[in-house]
Amino acid sequence: MDLEKMYKLFPEQKDFIVWLEGVRWGNNLACPYCGANKGISRQAGENRKARLHCNNCKKSYSVTVDTAMQGSKMDLRKWVLTAHILNLNSDISYRKLSALTGVTAANTFTIAKKIRQALTDEDIFLKNILKNIEKM
Description:
Layout: H1 3-9, H2 13-25, E1 40-42, E2 52-54, E3 60-61, H3 76-88, H4 94-101, H5 105-120, H6 124-134
Antiparallel strand pairs: 1-2, 2-3
Helix pairs in contact: 3-4, 3-5, 3-6, 4-5
C-alpha cells in the first residue's frame, strides 16, 4: 500500500472514515462511552472527521475516540499509511517514512511514537486496521 493507492481507494477522508467505522464496529455503530448501539446518529456538517451522536448518553464522538489517533488533525489516510509502513519495517528512518507518506518529519516522529506505543499496548483497533489494510 502506498499513498497513491490509498487515495485511489479512498478519494475523500469521509470515505476512509466510513471504512474505519466498519473496521471498528462492523454494521453496529456503538457508543464508546455508554455502549449503546441504538440511537446513534450522524451529526450534520462538513467536519474533517465525521461525528456521531449517542441519543442515550448525549455524547458526541468520532471513530478515533479512545485510540492513538484521537485528537489528530492529520489526514487519517496518511496516519494509517504511516502505521502500515511502520508495521512492515520498524527500522525505517523518519526521513524516509516522511517522504513515503507526505507527512512532515516532525509530524512523522510524533505519530510514529504514538503508533509504536499503541502496538506495544496491544491496541486491537489499530491491529485490525493493519490486518485489513494488508488485504487490500
